[in-house]
Amino acid sequence: MSTRNNGKRYNDDFKKMIVDLYHSGSSVKDLSSEYGISDVTIYKWIKDLTPVEGTDGKEITPKDVDAIQKENLRLKQELEILKKAMTIFARK
Predict the structure, then answer these.
(1) What three-state secondary structure class fits 65?
(2) Are strands 52-53 and 59-60 parallel, antiparallel or unpaired?
(3) How confident is the prediction along the chain (92 residues), in pLDDT tens digits per residue?
(4) What is the Cα–Cα distance from 11 to 16, expressed in whole angstroms?
(5) CA-CA distance, 74 to 17, in Å (whole number)?
(6) Element (H, E) at 53
(7) Which of 21, 29, 55, 77 has its C-alpha lying 20 to 30 A from 92's C-alpha?
C-alpha cells in the first residue's frame, strides 16, 4: 500500500530545517523515513535551498537566480516597449 501524499505543501521554514539537517550530517534516507517525505523531494529542496557563493562574496540560492532571471527578462521586455514608443513619438 502506498503512503504518498499527493499535493501536500510544506512551508519554507520546514524545508530549510530539512536542508539544514541534511547539511549537519543526516542522510536523505533517514530524513525521508523520519519525516515521511520522498527522497526526490528532499533532493529538490537541497538543490533549491543550498546557497552558493556569488562573485561579490554574497550567498545566493538557485531559487534566487531564477527570480533574478525572470526580473531581468521582464525589464528587457519593458525596455523594448519603451524603445518602440520612443521611435513612434520621435516621428511626430
Answers:
(1) helix
(2) antiparallel
(3) 445 555 678 999 999 999 999 999 999 999 999 999 999 999 999 988 888 887 788 888 888 888 999 999 999 999 999 999 999 988 87
(4) 9
(5) 32
(6) strand 52-53
(7) 77
